[in-house]
Amino acid sequence: MPYIHTLNNISEEGLHLLKADYHLIDNAKDADAIIVRSADMHEMDFSDKLLCISRAGAGVNNIPLDKCAEQGIVVFNTPGANANAVKELVLAGLFMAARDISGGIEWCIANKDDENISKDMEKAKKNFAGNEIKGKKLGIIGLGAIGIEVANAASRLGMEVYGYDPYMSVKNAWMLSRNVHHAFSAEEIFRDCEYITLHIPATKDTKGMINAKAFSMMHKGVVILNYARDSLVNDDDMAIAIESGVVRKYMTDFPNPKVMKMEHVVATPHLGASTEEAEDNCAKMAVEEMVDYIENGNIRNSVNYPNCDMGKCTSKARLAILHQNVPNMIGQITTVLASDHINIDNMTNASRGSYAYSMFDLGSDVKEDLIASLKQIQGVMRIRLI
What local confidence, expressed as pLDDT, does residue 60 receive? Predict the structure, then answer.
């Protein structure tokens, strides 16, 4: 009888996927699994009972990944579930930056009481005319699920699209339009493109990457779109770039006190993945990953442990072991199993950095004393019998 705790409001579309024997509870300390959106979990204490945390979204900055890994807690996210929602907002940002639509709307509101507004607008509209995006160069840094959606859509709109991502997967490469040009560095994007959009995670290597050095390479009048993470842009350097005319418009989904004092900024209140459809998709994917792990031990879309899938167990038992990625771990585990005359029907092992995961489908039942022996192996963090 798994107990599930939810942080934030989680879409009912996802929660409806839970079977009757799954129970939602209010106390996180009694939970087998937690589903979260944006709540900060860094100060939380996790019980030994907690098996996994499923993030209904892509970013996991709010979750202490290493702490979870050390305790044998698998953390999932839902890459791609909100990609279309973010893509549509990025396209809206492109159009608003090119045509100054927001400036035109503000003029209309400011002149709502003008009896001659129909006549006066003909003189005023030249201030908001802008340009078309067709034929303009768009540089995309990060070709994950969202970056690819943006690249393909912008290409269909007639933009000349350049994409940079040194870690792009083979799957994503197949999904990318052949019309998208491959850039070999972020610097190439900075030098050549009139519009630059960011679609990368916030890490120690990407924090503040849009800074004075990057601006020094850009054409005067560039448009920067940041619908990824606030910390990717150095706000002090952005203010200088806007004042000098290097940046014509800064489109961002992350308003903060510094940004909101800048001219030529169009900010939205973190709307990227906030559509009803995106929240439903993320919740459903988060629940499906969590349930598959609880019931079958399979890991899909983890951010702190390797993906590992053996389908449903058809043997007597399945042993799932989270452990450190060290030599001879598999040998030690199989030696313990052999000492109890247990035959291995099937097995798999995968590693990710310092951590690894192994599953064994076994031909006979497993006794508690054998589990106790396995726990004595140095580097084993958690054992589950499924």
Answer: 92
Cβ-proximal residues to 256 (8 Å cutoff; 6+ apart), any chain: 230, 235
Contact yes or no for 104/128 (Cβ under 8 A): yes
Q: 74, 305 in Cβ contact below 8 A?
A: yes
Note down the domain range covering 357. Answer: 308-386
Question: pLDDT (tens digit, 9 = 90+) per residue, 234-259?
Answer: 999 999 999 999 999 999 999 999 99
Q: Which two tokens stand for residue 336?
A: 């313990």
Total of domains in the chain: 3
Q: Are residues 260 and 290 in the same domain?
A: no
Write the pLDDT tens digit of every residue in 299-355. 999 999 999 999 999 999 999 999 999 999 999 999 999 999 999 999 999 999 999
- 27 occurs within a structural domain: yes
Nearest CA among 186, 149, 181, 145 for reference residue 165: 186
Residues 6+ apart with CB under 8 A from 336: 370, 373, 374, 377
The distance of Cα 326 from the centroid of its chain, to the nearest Å, equals 29
Buried b (16+ CB within 10 A) or exposed e, 212-229: eebbeebeeebbbbbbbb
Q: What CATH number corresponds to the domain at position 226?
A: 3.40.50.720
E-strand ranges in 7-136 read 23-25, 33-36, 52-55, 74-76
pLDDT digits 0-9 by tens, 24-39: 999 999 999 999 998 9
